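Entry for S-adenosylmethionine complex. Fields follow.
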Amino acid sequence: MNHHSWDAYSKSYLNIQKNPASFQLSLMNMLRFEEAEDILDAGCAGGQLHQYILQQRKKNCKLTGCDYSIEMVKLATARMLKFLNNPLQGGISEISPQDVENVDLNSPLLEQNNYKIFQGDVQSLPQLNNNQFDIYISNMVLHLVENKDQAIQEAFRILKPGGKIGIVIPVVSGNLMMHTLTKCFIESGLIKEMPFKPTDFENREGMINFISKHGFKDIVCWNQTIPFDLFDIDDNYIFPQFREILDKAPKEQVDQFYALFKQEVQNRLALNLPFTVESMSLIAKKPS
Ligand SMILES: C[S@@+](CC[C@H](N)C(=O)[O-])C[C@H]1O[C@@H](n2cnc3c(N)ncnc32)[C@H](O)[C@@H]1O
């Protein structure tokens, strides 16, 4: 996967965002966003946290977002401009493709509100200064990054002494949503085996060792399980990795996949249970 897959995915980002938001909210509470003066959201996608952060932040606190997908950067900017122009104008999901396409990435309104967003790869952020941020948040990004050591070294460099990092990654083993999707993909002949293998980060020990190796202290790391609603089974649930497979497959197999998945949803509803997704979350400090 590369930034082009995420460019394409930005078109359905507003759908997926309807679902799990609570990993990030727990993380932000644990980090105490309201005390920070300078916050970075690394791999911010369409900026689903940004309006919330703006409302919670301390006066004059700066918020910066970055993502390596330019389409995501445009979407986040369009949403922020809509919000800044009139927070009561309606839901941010009402952004039109034209709003995104024609967005002014250099609108002075952004800077006036201490908001900055740019296209950048979390593995190398020369645009950002040493010791700049109080908080570095990265929600559902690190597992996608090729050189994770480099990404965490960058985070360490740009955080102030005493600054905090907050990371969330999905965990394969407890992810019923992912397992069910994978099962339906395999049964309809679209793939042969589970495409996502548990990584070293899947357990707390691996994650804690990885972060402490880079100099972080006061590490708190926890698993979190949250529900996914079952109200519809449209493309909300088709993550970009799966989307790429569906786009290339014969219609017959795609129809079979949807039929199988629909049945799985019915089975779950019969138990009065939602699907669930699970994360590994972590916060830590750069020593003062
Ligand atoms: C699952 S989304 C994360 C969403 C966002 N953090 C949120 O809380 O809604 C993953 C995002 O990470 C971005 N991404 C993946 N690898 C990246 C990298 N090396 N540098 C910057 N962004 C990256 C993708 O473009 C995508 O927008």
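NOTE: The mean pLDDT is 88.
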